[in-house]
C-alpha cells in the first residue's frame, strides 16, 4: 500500500504541468482587504476537479457587501456573498448600512456606587463602524440596560448616535437598594464589602425616541419582555458593579505646612459655586500648643466658615478681611500640658470652608497660601501653596474608543502598515460626552507589539 501511494504521488509530480482542477480565476470585489487561503504544503486543491473548483477566502475589511467574481476564458459570473457567511451582526440588520464586523461594546464608568452618588453610567459604542462615513439621518438602535439584585430590577435606555455611534445609559438606584441588603447579606458585610449588582443590556429597534426611564424608581420583579419594542439581540451581560450603603468619601491629599501643621485638601476637581472644606491637623508627636495660621486666597475664592473641631481642647480666634480673601486664625490649646500630648497621633484642629465664586473664578488651578507663626518662639514657617482645581465641567471618567476590537497584522502579506484609529472621550456627570483626544496622551504597554 505504501508503494502504491508513492507511485500516485510520483505520477502527480510527473504530470504536475497539467491542471487537476477547473482553471477558473476567482476574485473578490467591494472588499478593502481579503485573502485567498491555502493550506501549508498543499500540493493539490481539495474537492476540486476539471469540472469544479473550491477556494477558501477570508474577508478582513469591507465597507459594502462583497461580490465574488469568477472568470474562465470568455465566460464570467458574479454573485454577492451571502450575509450569513459574513461577520455581520443581526443587531444592526435593520439599518441601511453594511454592518460588517460591527460589535456593540460597553464600558462601565464607575464600578463603585455609593448612597450619595446612586447613579450608574455605562457608555456604549459601536466598534467596527467607519467614523469617516457618517450620515446625519442614520437611525441607530436603542440600548436598554438592566440592573438586577435578587428580585429587584431597574431599567434605563439611550439611543446610539453620531459618527462614533455611542451613547451613555444613566440608571439611578432608589434608596431601598442601599438601605435593605439581600437577606443573606448582613449590614456590616454590605458596608465593608458592598453588594454586587449585575448589569445586562439588550438592543432594540425603535422609531422615534427611546423609552423613558419609567422604571427609574421602581423595583420590578423581572417584568419580562418589552412588547412595544422589537428586540434585536438576546440579553447580554455587561459586568457587575458594587453598591455600598455608606457615602463616598472624597479623595484627599495632604500638604505639610511645617513639622507641626498638616492640611488635608480635596484631590478631585470642583465646580464653580461649590463649597470646599480643608482640614487642619496637628502632626504626630507635635508639642505645639499655640500658633497663628495665616491664609490668603486667590481672587474668586472666599473663606466662608472656620470651625474648631474640638472646642474643649482648642480655643480659636479668627480675623478676616471684608472681602473674605485673607484670614488670621489664632489657636491656643486649653491645656498647655504638652507632656500629656507628646505621644498622641495626628488629629484635627480646624475645618475651613472655601467657596468658588461663580462670577470671577476662572477655570483652572486656584491657589491658597498658608503660613504658620509661633508667637512664643517668634518664628515663622515657609510660605506653602495649595491648589483647588476648578472645572466648569465635571468629568467622571474617560473611555478609549477604537474602530476595531482587535488588530490583525497583515503587513507581512500586503506590505502596508496596519493602523487602527483611536479616540478618547470624557463622560461628564450629566452623561454628556466630550472628545478629548487632542488633550490626552496614549502609551503602548509593549512598543514591540503595538505603537501609538
TrEMBL record:
Residues 252-393 form the Transmembrane protein TMEM132 cohesin-like domain. Residues 103-237 form the Transmembrane protein TMEM132 second Ig-like domain. Pfam families: Ig_TMEM132_2nd, Ig_TMEM132_4th, TMEM132_3rd, TMEM132_N. Residues 397-452 form the Transmembrane protein family 132 fourth domain. Residues 25-86 form the Transmembrane protein TMEM132 N-terminal domain. Signal peptide: none annotated. This is T132B protein. It comes from Machaerirhynchus nigripectus.
Amino acid at each position: 500500500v505504501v508503494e502504491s501511494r508513492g507511485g500516485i504521488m510520483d505520477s502527480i509530480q510527473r504530470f504536475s504541468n497539467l491542471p487537476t482542477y477547473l482553471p477558473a480565476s476567482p476574485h473578490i470585489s467591494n472588499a478593502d482587504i481579503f485573502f485567498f487561503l491555502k493550506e501549508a504544503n498543499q500540493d493539490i486543491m481539495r474537492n476540486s476537479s476539471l469540472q469544479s473548483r473550491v477556494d477558501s477566502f477570508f474577508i478582513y475589511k469591507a465597507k459594502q457587501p462583497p461580490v465574488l467574481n469568477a472568470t474562465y476564458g470568455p465566460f464570467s459570473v458574479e454573485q454577492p456573498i451571502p450575509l450569513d457567511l459574513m461577520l455581520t451582526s443581526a443587531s444592526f440588520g435593520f439599518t441601511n448600512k453594511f454592518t460588517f464586523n460591527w460589535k456593540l461594546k460597553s464600558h462601565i464608568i464607575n464600578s463603585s456606587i455609593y448612597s450619595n452618588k446612586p447613579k450608574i453610567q455605562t457608555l456604549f459604542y459601536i466598534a467596527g463602524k467607519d467614523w469617516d462615513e457618517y450620515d446625519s439621518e442614520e437611525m441607530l438602535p436603542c440600548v436598554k440596560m438592566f440592573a438586577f439584585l435578587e428580585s429587584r430590577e431597574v431599567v434605563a435606555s439611550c439611543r446610539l448616535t453620531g459618527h462614533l455611534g455611542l451613547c451613555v445609559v444613566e440608571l439611578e438606584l432608589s434608596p431601598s437598594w442601599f438601605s435593605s441588603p439581600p437577606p443573606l447579606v448582613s449590614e456590616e458585610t454590605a458596608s465593608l464589602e458592598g453588594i454586587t449588582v449585575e448589569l445586562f443590556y439588550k438592543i432594540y429597534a425603535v422609531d422615534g425616541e427611546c423609552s423613558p426611564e419609567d422604571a427609574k424608581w421602581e423595583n420590578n420583579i423581572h417584568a419580562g419582555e418589552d412588547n412595544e419594542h422589537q428586540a434585536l439581540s438576546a440579553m447580554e451581560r455587561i459586568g457587575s458593579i458594587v453598591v455600598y450603603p455608606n457615602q463616598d468619601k472624597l479623595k484627599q491629599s495632604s500638604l505639610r505646612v511645617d513639622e507641626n501643621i498638616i492640611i488635608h485638601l480635596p484631590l478631585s476637581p470642583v465646580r464653580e459655586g461649590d463649597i470646599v472644606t480643608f482640614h487642619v491637623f496637628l502632626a504626630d508627636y507635635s508639642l505645639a500648643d499655640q500658633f497663628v495660621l495665616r491664609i490668603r486666597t486667590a481672587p474668586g475664592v472666599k473663606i466662608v466658615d472656620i470651625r474648631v473641631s474640638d472646642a474643649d481642647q482648642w480655643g480659636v480666634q479668627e480675623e478676616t478681611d471684608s472681602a473674605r480673601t485673607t484670614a488670621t486664625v489664632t489657636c491656643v490649646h486649653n491645656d498647655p500640658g504638652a507632656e500629656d500630648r507628646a505621644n498622641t497621633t495626628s488629629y484635627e484642629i480646624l475645618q475651613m470652608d472655601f467657596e468658588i465664586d461663580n462670577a470671577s473664578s476662572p477655570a483652572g488651578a486656584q491657589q491658597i497660601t498658608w503660613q504658620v507663626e509661633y508667637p512664643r518662639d517668634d518664628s515663622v514657617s515657609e510660605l506653602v501653596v495649595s491648589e483647588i482645581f476648578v472645572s466648569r465641567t465635571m468629568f467622571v471618567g474617560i473611555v478609549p474608543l477604537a474602530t476595531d476590537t482587535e488588530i490583525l497584522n497583515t503587513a507581512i502579506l500586503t506590505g502596508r502598515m496596519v493602523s487602527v484609529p483611536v479616540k478618547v472621550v470624557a463622560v461628564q456627570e450629566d452623561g454628556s460626552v466630550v472628545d478629548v483626544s487632542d488633550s490626552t496622551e496614549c502609551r503602548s504597554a509593549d512598543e514591540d507589539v503595538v505603537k501609538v
